[in-house]
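Following the same procedure, sequence and fold were stored together, as reproduced here.

>
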Amino acid sequence: MKIRDLMTKEVLTTRADASLKDTARRMVEAGISGIPVLDDDGFVVGIITESDFVNAEAERRQSWRRAGMLRFLDRRESIPSQERTVGDVMTTKVITLGPDADHSEAARLMQKARIKRLPIVEGDHLVGLISRTDLMRAFARPDEEIIEEIIDEVITKILWIDPAKVQVTSQEGNVTLAGRLETKSDAELLVELTKRLDGVVSVASNLSWEVDNTRSDMTGRPPGMPRPNW
C-alpha cells in the first residue's frame, strides 16, 4: 500500500525559533508525541519529539547544578539562561520518504532507526506524516476489502483464473481459499500472492487441481517415445 494512502496530511508543525514551552503545550493539546520542524520555505529542517524534551530537561537540570557550584566558587559566574527554543534541542538528522513509497519500506526504516514517525516529502516540501499508528491501518483492513482484492486483482487480473472456480472467505484477516483449478502451479501462486496482501494474517488452502504441472521431468524421455537410434 502506498504511503500517500495511509499518511496524515494535516500535520502539526513548528519552527526552529519557537518556544519549547509553547511547542510542548501544542503537542500535549493535540495528543501527539512528535512534530516536524519547518523553515520559512516549508522545508523539513528537523523533528522534535518527547525524547528531545526529556533530554533537554535533563541537560537543563545538570546546567543548573553546574552553575550553582560555579557561582558558589566564583561570584562572577551567573546561572545560565533557561530560555531555549525548538532549534536548540530538535533532531536535525531527519529520515524522510516520498508519498509513493510502499508502507513496508516505512516500517523497515522505523524499525531500523527505532523511530515512531517519518515526515513525508515531495520536492523537499512536507506533504504528510506517517506514524506507527498509520501503518497499523494497513493491517486492519476489513475482510470485505481483502476478499475483493483477492478476487478482482489476484485471481482475475494477475492469474487470469475464472473467479467462479475459487471460493474466498476471510475472518479477521485469516483467509481460506477453496476450489478446483487447472494446474497446481496456479494454486500455489494464488496462495503465495494472497499471503503478500495487506491485512492478510494467514492463508489456509483447500485448493485442488486437474494437473500437477510442477512435477514434469523435462530432462528425460517422455513415456512411450522410442529410444533414438544413433
User: Anything to note?
Assistant: Helices lie at 20-30, 50-73, 86-89, 103-113, 132-136, 143-158, 184-195. The chain has two domains: 3-138, 143-211. Residues 143-211 form a domain with the Histidine-containing Protein; Chain: A; fold (CATH 3.30.1340). Residues 142 and 172 are 8 Å apart (CA to CA).
